Fold each of these.
Amino acid sequence: MSLSREEVLHIAQLARIGLTDADVQKFQEQLSHILDQFAALRRIDTTGVPPTTFALPLENVWREDIVQPSLPVEDVLANAPAREGDFIRVRRVLE
Amino acid sequence: MSQPATAYEVVIGLEVHAQVATASKMFCPCPATYAGAAPNTHVCPICLGMPGVLPVMNRDAVEKTLLFALALGCTIPHDSKFDRKNYPYPDLMKGYQISQYDMPFSVNGHLDVDLPDGTVKRVGVTRVHLEEDTAMLRHESGAGGERYSVVDVNRAGSPLMEIVSEPDMRSPEEARRYLEMLREILRYTGVSRANMEEGNFRCDANISLRRFGAPQYGTKVEIKNMNSFRSVQMALEYEVRRQSEMLDRGEQITQETRGWLEAERRTVSQRSKEQAHDYRYFPEPDLPPVRPAAAWIEQLRVTVPELPQTKRHRFVEQYGLSAYDANLLSTPRARAEFFEQTIAIAGAARAKQVSNWLLGDIARLQNAHGQEFEHITIAPAQVAELIDLVERRVLNSTTAKAVLERIYTSGGSPTAAASDLGLVSAPAAGLDALLATVIAANPRAVTDFRGGKANAVQALVGAVMRETRGTADAAQVRELLLEKLARD
């Protein structure tokens, strides 16, 4: 299983990561190896095995609808790249 | 509705997002309210998407979603789960939204939409699922013209229900009715405040056109940014015109997202993402699956209230109300319940009077006091007593209104209020003597009446009403006068 250059660039774009030509080549190989591992799994006969969506034997884990105190606004903004008043300021991104 | 005659069939599907009315957020204990809160004050490490935190489901949000799904006749699968929907945008703290992809809480429901022409249109509901809301962005321009955005995380993580319809609507008006009825049910079930202006009820529409009889749907366009029922209808009507004209000219419709510009009354293409949506959904590894017990579902099923539509039809059948009055009485739910509680005391034979009071003077007072019906300051027993006093002619329509106003603002029983206000009618015996006095004092009117002027009796009625300071029942006075004049 081999990933094309375009596929790697598409994945990088989705992750908003910039890649050099050397990176693209490296990831083409590395990601292809990962896919090969999954290809090995796909060879196992899973007839009659229900799909797994969660790895632990748990279900219906919840909390009651009770409010607890939030963080002080200074803590919320402590790691913000920039702020304006009590808002986080970011570069404008149009959808 | 003024829809131009067209060769095309309109196909509309709606996607509604409604905030579930909980106290805390979907996966963390921050307050779920955001309207009016100071920015970034309802935020914790979980909704901020800090590393190492663990979301835990709000049981009430799940229960309300299931209740609403049951109200729409949905099937509740035995097994459901949350998924991560991945996309990079500054309104997503984690780079993904926790949503539901292929195993939602409910599927295959429907809503029977009452249309203005009296027909009923069944609209399929594909699914109702739960997800978390995003943060709020505001786009700004700086002094130097640089453009940036500011983020308020308060809304991020609030429980948001998504209700997806089948492409079953065939006109903008049907779409609007569907939304109105959906909102009614959201409020009736107490699942959401469902207020479009407050932003806790939002709607996107998919619309396509095809020649009548065509086997396949046309290319669909998604419309966003509609923030009232009226704008939904207007935006869809605009799209019907735009797409019909393009098809008439033999042009292709482009599959795209368009935004409604309220001020300009038109839709514009929104710059689409460079790639088609590629959300790379995968099961949320931090949240175990939800497998609602059958007993829980059955218990919820019986708590689904009678829906407004059913109530309307029953009010017409059971109490002989007009469809118009039944429609008004059916919402809000508090008024429908007040109506029937009053009837439980006053008897079904007085349904029309109860309806008249509720839709007339009580509605007027409620508006004057700027109250929601839920907070109305009058009780069914008081209204039943008021109706009884009118029926026994202790009060007439004018004095009854005065009594209503008194009890509405000061409470107490209508009987006590009537007596406080000095509005209790003269007893019939006293009235008889008064009639004799009035007849004796107005020989001219009596002569005119006997001479064939039937209207002359009104002068005598007026005189009696003046003497009783308006407390007598004018119709009764007239009747008694006619009797007396015929006899004497």
Amino acid sequence: MAFSIYDFTDLAQSIHNGLSSSLTPVWTTVIEWAIIGILYILFVALFGLFLVYAERKVCAAIQQRIGPNRVGPYGFIQTIADFIKLLMKEIINPKGVDHFLYNLAPYIVIATVFIIISMFPFAPGLQSFDFDIGVFFVTAVSSVGVIGILLAGWSSNNKYSLIGGIRSGAQIISYELSVGLSLITMIILSGTMQISGIVNGQADGWFLFKGHIPAFIAFVIFIIAGTAETNRGPFDLPEGESELTGGFHTEYSGIKFAFFFLAEYMNLFIVAAMVTIVFLGGWQPLHFGTGNGFNAAMDLLPPIIWFFLKVCTIILLIMWFKWTFPRLRVDQILTLEWKYLLPINLFNIILMSVVVLMGWHW
Amino acid sequence: MKALFNYIKEVLGGFYTLLQGLGVTGKYLFTPWNYVTQSYPENREKLQMFERFRGEVIMPHNENNEHKCTGCGLCELACPNGSIEIISKSILTEDGKKKRIIDKHIYHLGMCTLCNLCVRACPSDAIIMGQKYEHAVYNRSNLTKVLNKPGSKIMEGIKE
């Protein structure tokens, strides 16, 4: 079985050949689905736990604390212990909830996360789906997640949850616009919506460097709007610990709360991965031009490590925001979107079109 | 035109202040060895408390087992919750006068709020705040302490 850490295409092909040589096509497909599903569940659970740990450590470092340091070396097993505790908690159904929607909402939120992650190329050959409208599909599915949040807020029979859900809806629907427009700016540059096409287009330089000023403006706007879409600080109004006691997930406990919690952190990963794919070249190593010694040196590091290196850098940046900036009020959040990000974004699209038409990008 | 100029200035100014904030927290984030929190049980050998830390009320004795307490009872009066009891006794001095001195300075640590009022009330600075902070005991009666050591005397030259 051919195996290389640099390219997973051969590995996937040899697994497929091995299965289809001994099984019927139907069973081959079913087993391949099962393998992929288990891999994604493992990835989401482990990376989510890692992100919770990383967030606590980053927050502690910014506040000059130590953070979790008792369970395991440097507190590394702390989040696993927390998660086991969460799973063993009683699942409470409050009085007067709409049982069907109340039970459905966490699954909508977590299923959205899985659908989006299936679009991401972690390395060459490590991608489940590759539609030719990939970026469009990701933005479309990510707005399904808000339905889960709205349902959770509505069905909980709790005024705080309702306010949190509505706030979340207003915020995510507003910022979806900025996310979409800044992605359109980059699609003008890349000329394709297919995610593998976007990544391959950055083999001779990342789009952040290729697109000059408009790409950089789109990068900043995407990070701001993406942070707002994940309901993280400084845009964490839907949770509003101080005034809404947790917002839309106030009434949830046990594994259902864990789903919301995990989905929130995986949304952070999704935003960071989208930034990585669209602006920082996905799994492409840092390249300038073609065929020089610098590129050959950068190729030594496997693409999957490049991908996670970039993702973790962006995640660190977003966590740094969260623990630095003060929260925005509801009207300030909407002012930021409609009076600042949207006009700048529309202007930026024109700027990018001019740059691409005049051939000023590399 | 002026409005557009102000708009751009506002956006850039906003980014400048945000970057300033990021600079402050980034300084802490990337120097994690400068943390303020102490890892308590690991560093208990070399842990130094601050000078103004109030751990408990103690009565310092010198090497001749002498203290400064005259047994005046002002600390007992100053204590808001009765943590201090002064038991005094009368002795005859060498020139035949009766004199009241301290017998037992009883201090209930379990009731004490460490408010420092007794230390401030003391006219002869006989009691001060100690630095000890590990007060866990297995029996509640161990929290009641006699501050003057057995057989101790008052220092020379302490006025009533």
